[in-house]
Here is the input.
Amino acid sequence: MKAKVNKDLCIGCGACVATCPDVFDFNDDGYAEAKVEKVEDNNKDAVVEAKEGCPTGAVETEE
Here is the structure.
């Protein structure tokens, strides 16, 4: 699985960072970004939770 944050939709609320800090972090502009190319198996559920919890739908996943 791959995860990414759509920079045009992100408002920098930090929900994804709080839910899955192993995958998401803030960039220098204060918006979230995925910090890994491939999501490890042990983080997949947290990434799905972050995607579902994003208020703007900015978190995207791809198998």
Helices lie at 15-19, 44-53. The beta strands are 2-5, 24-26, 32-34, 59-62.
